[in-house]
Design a protein that fits this description.
This protein has about 190 residues and is mostly helical. The protein contains 7 helices and 2 strands. The protein is about 70% helix and about 5% strand. The chain has a two-stranded antiparallel sheet.
Amino acid sequence: MAKWYDEQIGIEALCTEIIGISSRQYRQLATDGKVPSVVDGKISFSVACREFIAHQRKLLTGLGSLTLTEERTRMTRISADRKELALEQERGEVINTEEAMKIWAGILVSFKKRMQAVPRKMSPMVFGSSKVTEIQEIMEKEVTAILNELSEPNLISIAKAASTFTTSVEKRTGDPKVRKPSKREPVG
């Protein structure tokens, strides 16, 4: 003997009285493969309810298909985020990653040059000194000056130097990472 929930039920009764959607909406869900199809105007009550509830759960957890309104909301949010990022870039609050890398490379090059110049600069300064403490004091002043320069770099001049270098490389090669050999010929 068949149970009441295994019986075939009319599509109109299922939709309007039990599920609360129109028969047209149900048929669209069936076309999309979300619920079982209607056969001769009837449908299995238990299977239809089980699959409709599963579909609703997917929609609630975000796994179902997006509605047009949800898609527009998502696109509006993306557009607003892009405009906010552009505004932050115009204000100077955010910079491009590539620019930041160039600026930091400029800072490190400056630091490297200053550190490499220490022996040449310090040799004459400590040459006449006879006390170790006096030599140490002179060297500490120079190292402190270099570290202060690193802690408070002139980012504007470094950025200008980095952009000038990039522009000249790009003009020559078309790519800032690739250097083409020159086409110069020997004279004489």
